[in-house]
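Protein 1 of 2
SEQ + STRUCT:
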Amino acid sequence: MTVMKGAVALLALVAVVALAGCGADPAFTSGKVYLADQNYEDAIEQLTLAIENAPDNWEPRMYLGSAYAEIGDLERAHDEMFRALELAPDDAARAEADNTIIYYWQEYNKQGMQYIDAAKYEEAIKEFEKAVVVDDRQPDALTGLGVAYQSLGEYDMAIEYFQRAFEAAPENETIQENLLTVYDNKARSLGSASQYEEAIGYYREIERIQPDYPELTFNIGYMYYQMRDYATALDYYEQYLVENPEDEDVLRMTYYAHWVLGEEMWETDEMAATDHYESAIGALNRLLAMGDEVAYHRTLAKIYTKLGREEEAELEIQQMRVLLEQQNQ
């Protein structure tokens, strides 16, 4: 395993320094020598024997973890190195055990990043997965997996790893941004497939983490609009229009939603229906201030007629006729 030669050299140096103090257990001494010589099979055998001789000794486990890492048995490497970290008796020993874990993690994470930079996402996934097996505390490899899966359009997998990275480092702004972006992409994908309720679920996750996320109120409102839940859609559109008062698309959906709700309520609650009609009139007049449209005058005429405001209805009809004549010239 050529990428690990640096770790072997490091451990060999430690072994040379430690040989004089480890004569009490020939298996431990032999295991370190075999490891330094890259004779991993014999190193594993001797270090396993050393652990049997002293189950609570952290050092044989650290070296055994390294031996397993060198042959690519990463799950066993993880177990032994973290057990060594757990058994380490003082800060210096814990630092040594932790540095060994981080070394192997860094090798795989670095290779994964190189594949990301080369847009080789499937290869990157393999390397990041190895890094996570070695050390699942580090958010970088989890983030790398999220980036790779998102680049392949596999949003569910990307979400899984970005969530894990965010749990490991909730204050990391880059990780948070990645998580919110993949939530947004997943929601848009679901919305395009007419799975509006599912899309709203992901927008809610964004709202929970960052309530002022760009276009969030519009997107949630649009999902409800598509579901014909116009009352809820209007709650979000009213928030959106505070910051974007001249958004024509939202104003069009706003007038239409108020108009539909007015029509639905007219027979049972005329007062509430009238409020919706008045709101629709307000949105239509704002649209007309941006540009004359026959359809807007036609809708205003219908609303004024429903409300018994015949003179205003007639004025809208006249305006509509003028526009139609101009278009036909």
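Protein 2 of 2
SEQ + STRUCT:
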Amino acid sequence: MPNYVYGDACVSGDDKYVIAQFRADAPMEWVAELRAFLVKDELKYKDFFPERHRVQAKKDLWKHLTAGIRSAEITIVDPALYETSVKAGLEARGAEFGHDFDINVLRELTGDAILEDSPLNAATYSEFDWLSDNFSYFGPKPTRFSPAAIKSRVGGKLKHAVLTAARAHAMVSPSEHQELILMCSGVEMPSPMRQLELIKRMARVFDIENAKSVGVLNEFVTRMAHASQFRHTLRLNGDAPMVTEANSQSIAHLQGADMAAGWAVDILALNNGDLRTLAKNFAWVSSNGVVIPDR
């Protein structure tokens, strides 16, 4: 059985998409404690925030809350950095904003760049073409898993590309991303047990937000399984998909993730977006596929 990791997200005031995750074995007693104190059927950061000073006055509760929050892992995708890079690239080739391209074109290209830079790019190799619905040995090469196609499949807008890329980054660490690229390209195959571990570690339960991205992420897992020596891996959890969305109302881990994501966004707002400060407050932080050190 995959060791599922549970994640929920929050968007910062400057459009950073922030996912907080908790491992399946993370202690979640603090969620029930805080929910009971706030007299809520479901714990949400938006309900906690106006009551934070009252919670802080309860020393034991505050201690349990902060310790629980610190065990979260934070994954960020910052579209502004990609947009700046895409715009600079266009201008370096002589294109002029407002004449040769507009904000709509810029946002389209930014979405493609974000997806291309995500772990999903490991699944674009031609050896996976036969997995596509429109595959034909005699027809045109399928483009189902190109960045533009993925963006269209998950909703078509920049925000959908950001969400899908962030979920992929949350499923695969930067070092694992490189291992998958090597595995898919055939340059260097990890050991069989490592390949199995890489596939199993992708299992996720996200809060309900974009069901279309779940289909893409499960296809990503399928492609990685076929690149490995463990094509049967998807059967480890019966017929259930490796990536799902679930209602957080009955899942303490997802309620905790909502809390941690909101907490992270507030830390960024109070510290001018400083990622090192954020990393000091959580177990692990990455942004745009780069691990942020806490010192």
